[in-house]
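User: Before I run my own analysis I want an independent prediction to cross-check against. Here's the chain; please return only the structure tokens and, at the end, one sentence I can use as a sanity check.
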Amino acid sequence: MFDIELYKEIWQAITKNKVRSTLTAFGVFWGLFMLVALAGAGNGLENGINKQFEGFATNAAFVWSEPTTVAYKGFKKGRSWSFVNDDMKAILQNTPEIEHLVPRLQGFRQNTPNNTVYKDKYGSFSLNGDYPALAQVEPFEITKGRFLNDMDIRDSRKICVIGPRVEEVLFKKGENPLGKFIRVSGVYFQIVGVFDTNNNLNFGYDKREAIHIPFTTMQRAFNYGDIVHLFSFTAKKQFSVADIEDKVLSILKKRNDIAPEDISAIGHINIERQFKIMSYLFLGIRILIWVVGLGTLLAGVIGISNIMLVIVKERTKEIGIKRAIGATPYNIIRQIIMESVFLTFTAGYVGLILGILLNEGLGIILANSDNDIFLNPGIDLASGLKALLILVAAGALAGLLPASRAVKVKPIDAIRYE
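Assistant: Structure tokens:
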């Protein structure tokens, strides 16, 4: 039952020495404030990093050629080499575990200052030769028109899909770019689509400033022959990228006379592995945050327990009188534990609210900035409830030892205590 007199007595006991109570409660306040603030910051960091990878196929890998570092079959180390079309065919024929294989040409020779022109407008943009399956690996959204298709590849059509920054620079606001021709390094391409992306994770180029043309068109129009600069692939659902990666590298080394032990001649990044590394990293961060936060909170709770011991000692005579006039050990224990819980819960609740407000404030500030690292810092409802449960349990534990000592003192000895 709700005993108003009990709570009045608890309030009087706590406010009797305001400075001591405030300083004691500060330890718990600071512990929970730090726990919430750190947990919110950790969640914000995780949200920001996950946003960078949003839309990327998690079962993908990217592969590119590098100079050799081991002499092999008469070739000196340091030899520059490139993939070719037949390499892509060989990989598909010998690796049925692959779902999508996406070769790419990067227009290094074409990416010159002011390489793109439309009427009297011009700009510098990156040119890429791609396949339609690029949409299965990298995230983007078609906002106007369409993306590349198989007929574009088959017929080597001189069409292109442009990024939002290209549209912004070359065309007037409100002007429809579809069907217009732009000149890229002296070659005209008709725009069939515009894409956009909220993802800022770039692999060698800024997606928003990119122009995509059919892979076969780029090989012919700019005299690249059958060269492939890099490629990406995704694994079928029942396979792991790690299962395929070594097999693909082995095929490429055999076909291009690369020493089997030359681990640097083929650059590659396994997105699946990167996601796993990040998940373990964030798990470690969460554990560290809770260890630090709970450790700080525990220090505050120990402080409250010590102060409650002092308070019990100061009130020994009062406790003896209560026992003498009929108060049971349960009444004494309940009052002391309730005082400890009240002090702990109040201080912790203030820390919880201020920690949440801090995260909300940071979220508003970051939302209005160019920040790409932190996103929506804060804690979820489950974490908040866990924190409240920890507060109640901590308060009860903090008062348990002082309460047990209080009831061990005999009433007659307590009354005589000076």
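Sanity check: The first strand starts at residue 60 and ends at 65.
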